[in-house]
């Protein structure tokens, strides 16, 4: 332990001296991380003890993904040790920033959904609320991305092997999960059959400390690992083959959160997570099972953990011996559900046959839930169409979103617009049936990572103007509104932004051998690659700009660097072709003797939490250009805002609420509204072809695109062609393209007025407080979970 800089240095040096090898950065990192881990342990034990002692209600956040990012730096920030350690290391000739770079990043998530879970963990601990994560300890996180001739390449990652291990193996809490097998009537009634010949998997938890800021609260992120069970639970036959089968369950994160590729394995992962987490909760309780909802709240993060509903029923019926009515009452007062998308392909549906085979008892319970719910609905005399929508099991498939709604006490969307769409359209019938279940909880992000940690320069500047209370209460950022006209403050802000832009430029030289102009406007489109996120529209617009520069000698706009970063799911060919297209256009523009002085296109490889931390603070413009209605919330939009970037976007997801906060004058909004998009979808009155035929500029870029010259071969755009032409441009890229181009022109004009631009940036920061995940978590707690703050010292 260390309580002063001198003490820290002394301990650190002592540990260094004990090393056999010369002290590399890696060794120094491990020593430091070990010291911090030890520091955290005492608070962790104390928090755990307090939770038991005070018998307060506990929240368990079930999620198939937790994109936590690196831990060392964030833990130091939350422990208020960052400055001290930084100085101490500096005096010893080490750079903390460099040591942080040694930490392998656990990529246990795909994007927004997983990162949200991580921000929530940070907020719960920092608000001193008893909330824990339950997830899977994937041996390999999301693939690491490279580029080969402009094409995405994917390499497996193995974060665990390289890690110092923030987590602790809890062999004492290991459990066993049954798959397959057959049910036999046991004479205990129709709902309590015996499960025979199951194939057992051992679930071993690894606990990760989640260090809260300000207090001494350390919550737990429990990640389950699948292992071979002991002798007596082993099936007959080839043990090595069985071991391999078992271990694949926690081997890899699915490289996509919106498809169910590799269905059986994905289903196994989901049940593994739900069963292990629920079994521990029930087993280790010290209260009667009938009062579970008083002591425990379970939030399911999208439908991936929706099997928690029938699994909790199974435990209550078969292991606790409750009646169906009792069990159902408890389940539907314990579990609540968050929906994160309305994209059709992301709406999970499992084949009944597969479910029945893999989880016979659980399937039987789902059938009974469905039967009872159908019976209720029939009493309401609904139209057959409505009845079909309300069915949990329909046409040989189980609709997980319907199961999740029926089996939980509260259901929420993640931004106002998204929740409205859920209520009015996607889940209209369910909302009518359960009028009080649906509510909105607009997402948030932790400013402790995305501002305090990622942008200490801006944090310091803010604190120098308004004090540092905003770090505890982000709504205090409002005080910055007094500085929006203050030329000194605006000048300081500009200097900080420039510093962050320089830092990113240096980083890219070092890590990607790319040289960018730090004086250019940094325009960023960084997120997963997806049709609806419209990276295609962005790059087509850039090609239009390029054509204009080539055609019109008087058009010489302010230099801009267009950043793209993000991964495409391995099997998502369209998205991969967009990546190739971006890189081909980048090469063409970046080597053009004239255009390169005005436009620069950079694809930042292997986008991750730590890369994101370097990018958000450096942005001038935040591209949030999804087809309206498709982006449930977005959270990158909030990270940009908090760092003073100005949004160029559509009225979609939480961007609507960002604009509500800052006013129309401080953002650049364009394109179809969600209403209009939904209208076009319904009436089918949009014809992409007309735009290609009638708009000269669009016609030109599309024909360049289709010729294959922008992608080094027409075969590299066949999926894009199919979408734009064959499928009539379902994401309205061509429809919104000219409005997007005009809006970019407005942005450029505005950027020329430096003070006005900085004023916009500062308004964005000042109004960003509401998008803190602390606010979101308080709302969940007040309106859904009913947690109380546990007072640690
Ligand atoms: C997502 C949404 O696409 C995204 O808009 C949202 O911000 C995020 C967190 O709520 O959830 N849904 C899925 S699926 N993946 C996401 O990132």
TrEMBL record:
Allosteric enzyme that catalyzes the rate-limiting step in glycogen catabolism, the phosphorolytic cleavage of glycogen to produce glucose-1-phosphate, and plays a central role in maintaining cellular and organismal glucose homeostasis. Phosphorylase is an important allosteric enzyme in carbohydrate metabolism. Enzymes from different sources differ in their regulatory mechanisms and in their natural substrates. However, all known phosphorylases share catalytic and structural properties. Its main location: cytoplasm. The modification N6-(pyridoxal phosphate)lysine is found at residue 639. Its EC number is 2.4.1.1. The keyword Transferase applies. PANTHER family: GLYCOGEN PHOSPHORYLASE, GLYCOGEN PHOSPHORYLASE, LIVER FORM. One of its GO terms (cellular component) is cytoplasm. This is Alpha-1,4 glucan phosphorylase. Its cofactor is pyridoxal 5'-phosphate. Belongs to the glycogen phosphorylase family. NCBIfam families: P_ylase. GO terms for molecular function: glycogen phosphorylase activity; pyridoxal phosphate binding. Keywords: Allosteric enzyme, Carbohydrate metabolism, Cytoplasm, Glycosyltransferase, Pyridoxal phosphate, Transferase. It catalyses: [(1->4)-alpha-D-glucosyl](n) + phosphate = [(1->4)-alpha-D-glucosyl](n-1) + alpha-D-glucose 1-phosphate. It is found in: Cytoplasm. GO terms for biological process: glycogen catabolic process. It comes from the Bacteria.
